[in-house]
Amino acid sequence: MFHKEGYKIMAAAMILLIVVNLAAQAFIFTEWINLVILIGTIILFFLIVQFFRNPKRNTEENDAHIIAPVDGKVVVIEEVFEKEYFKEKKMMISVFMSPINVHVTRHPVSGKVNYSKYHPGKYLVAWHPKASEENERTTVVVENKVTGEILYRQIAGALAKRIVNYAEVGTEVSQGSDSGFIKFGSRVDVYLPLGTKINVNLNDKVKGGVTVLASKS
Fold first, then answer.
1. Residue ranges of the alpha helices (H) in 2-83?
2. Which of 116, 120, 133, 157 is most buried as measured by Cβ atoms within 10 A of its Cβ?
3. Is the separation of the CB atoms in 186 and 155 below 8 Å?
4. The whole model's pTM is what?
5. pLDDT tens, 5-17?
6. Is 98 annotated as catalytic?
């Protein structure tokens, strides 16, 4: 299964790579070079296709749990001052996604969307300390009846050029449901109330819609 955000890109890539191979056949008369081009374009198309995969995840909804919104590796767990929405200290968990990870973003909790805002910005590497404030990003806040308001922020990386966010203010969303997509390497930060029990450690690999990042203590 593939994410809908990838259909046009995959179709365009297929057409372009077919044209490249036809051109190679027409103008390059060395058989082994044509074979190398063919193999290279097949590998490139495979990489593009795997980036847009959208595996089905069976989320066990639990209002006391905050689940990972994306696949990737936990790179930050620290107390920070959240400037945009809460304007107070929160516990932040950052998950970094490499280009080979699934890039679907999922709602970490069920509830009502209280805030959803897109910010244009730079394309610093996703692990840069200033990426969460200066890169292209989207901030979403979902209010859950048990955990309270949970903020998560999609952050573009050096390769990412477009963030897709489906969360609309006032709508009700379900934990684990599709919240958006980030095209190519990036990260997602999740901001939790102080005192929330953290269930992951630095460098842990997490699975979006499945791994419990934290829980209401």
1. 7-27, 31-51
2. 157
3. yes
4. 0.80
5. 767 877 888 898 8
6. no
Beta-carbon count within 10 A of 152 CB:
28
Q: How far apart are CA 217 and CA 150, in angstroms?
A: 15
Of 98, 186, 215, 217, which one is the catalytic site residue?
186
Strand ordering across the sheet containing 212-215: 65-67, 212-215, 197-198
Chain segment 134-148, per-residue pLDDT in tens: 678 899 999 999 999
Q: Looking at the chain, which runs of residues are DSSP E strands?
A: 65-67, 72-82, 88-97, 104-106, 111-119, 137-144, 148-156, 163-165, 172-173, 178-182, 186-192, 197-198, 205-206, 212-215
Give the dihedral of Cα atoms 182, 61, 196, 94; nearest 10 deg.
-20
Sign of the Cα torsion 203, 204, 208, 213 reads negative
DSSP helix/strand/coil, 168: coil
Tally of residues, the chain: 217
Interatomic CA distance for residues 193 and 148, integer angstroms? 8
Instruction: Give bridge partners of residue 206 from the DSSP assignment.
Output: 72
**Two tokens, residue 90:** 């929160």
- Confidence label for 150 from pLDDT (cuts 50, 70 and 90): very high
- Determine the topology of domain 65-215 in CATH: Glucose Permease (Domain IIA) (2.70.70)
Does 21 score more than 60 pLDDT? yes
What is the identity of the amino acid at 116?
S
Q: How far is Cα 44 from Cα 49, in angstroms, rounded to an integer?
A: 9
Give the Cα separation of 29 and 203 in Å (integer). 50
Read off the DSSP letter of residue 196: P
